[in-house]
Amino acid sequence: MEANIIAHDEDQVTVQVCIDLSGTMLEAEGQIQDACNAIGRAASLEALKRFETDGTPIMLGAIKWTRRCTSHQTYQTPYGPVGLERHVYQTSQGGKIYCPLDADARIIRHATPLFAKQLSHKYAQMNVNAVCADLSDNHGRPVTASYVQNVTDWVGAIAMAQEETWDYTLPVLDQPVASVAISLDGAMLAMKEEGWREAMVGSLSLYDPAGERLHTIYVAATPEHGKAVFLQRMTQEIERIKTQYPNALYLGIADGAASNWSFLEQHTERQLLDYFHAAEHLPAIAMAAYPGKTDKPKREQWLHEQRHQLKHEHGAVQAVIEAAQRLTHKRSLSRSVNADLQAALTYFSNQAARMDYAQHLSEHLPIGSGVIEAACKTLVKQRLCGAGMRWKQRGAKIILSLRALVQSTGRWAQFWQKINQFGAQPC
Q: Which residue ranges does the chain devote to CATH 3.30.420?
């Protein structure tokens, strides 16, 4: 199906198309979709022509470029391919070819910017075969897997190259920011050459005075020794937030890993152990208190009470430690129960200063790292840990960079605004 341009007035076009509505409703809808794509191709071709030069010499900085020839190029749009003749340029020294239309229209691997945006967004969410099936089945837009990957690779290269230089503005928030919770955690990722390695995920969550989460910024990085790149990017995001919200309370929430605290202590006023990680160590003490086979109801009752007290009562962690210390003197405990008890006692003793949950709740502050736990799943696991998936560093970096932009509300749109402003070159 083809559409015809019947009127053209400066920056406006009028497109005519004939649609066959016979048959079933489903068949008619298919014809309507084909017609919409035909209109899109016709209008896109006219839009591309607006960026073509007249063939006269151009200056890029202090260098003069002259027309080398006219070359036909097929461009990929959301509605299908369109072709046109456009001028390409070269300097008097020869070498690199330059196409003003491609540069000015922000063409990426022969894809128009909207199509490149769609492809990279879909590939950040789905594997390449699913992307191709979605485009063909739902949009009437067949495309090859290799093309999806080529375009996304270029877009991802831009995202990675500009991670430290492009600033993103926060969305307009309905409430003032009273606190910022900073968390980091890892998720295991299967790498092609190194086996299972830990990818890192970070989150900066903004909360209002009532403790409602307003906005979250996500950072993700592929496995690396020492985590220097990831921590540098986290530091940069923290510094940007502190510039905008200097009076907010900065709270670090994480599990018990020592490396987490060494980083969070540098950037936050308070540090808090995730409540749910702490509660996971209570069953070992409950088993020591009520080890008998018929003691299960008593264990469950004790656990229920201790979880509530740990969460809501001041000084509850000290009571847990004292109870565990008393139980260490029980000689009737089995070796395994005693070992688990000692491990729990050590855990609570080492982390006691980071377990004042009642105080934090009274100040309407978060006490759990659910945001970062969810981010590990949504940023890493959902996309990168499918059956049989194994990744090279570059491929995983591209996916994580794009997913972090997509999941940080407002950043994906701003990223494309910056491409529209500065161009589609990675650097």
A: 172-267+382-402
Neighbours of 146 (CB within 10 A): 9
Cα separation of the two ends of the chain: 40
Least confident of 29-33, 69-73, 255-259, 400-404: 255-259
pLDDT, tens digit, 9 for 90 and up, residues 165-199:
899 999 999 999 999 999 999 999 999 988 999 99
Burial class (CB in 10 A: 0-12, 13-18, 19+), 296: exposed
Report CA-CA distances (Å) from 244 to 172, 235, 268: 13, 14, 15
Contact indicator for 120, 108 with CB cutoff of 8 Å: no
- Identity (one letter) of the amino acid at 121? H
CA 167 – CA 352 distance, rounded (Å): 38
Q: Is the dihedral of CA 284, 289, 290, 296 positive or negative?
A: negative
Q: What is the pTM of this model?
A: 0.90
Alpha-carbon gap, residue 421 to 412, rounded angstroms: 14
| Tens-digit pLDDT profile for residues 268-301 | 999 999 999 999 999 999 999 999 888 999 999 9
What residues contact 293, with CB distance under 8 A and at least 6 apart? none
Query: From CA 107, how far away is CA 405, in angstroms rounded?
Result: 21
Element (H, E) at 139: helix 128-139
Q: Is CATH 3.30.420 the right assignment for the domain spanning 172-267+382-402?
A: yes
- Tokens found for residue 184: 């980091």
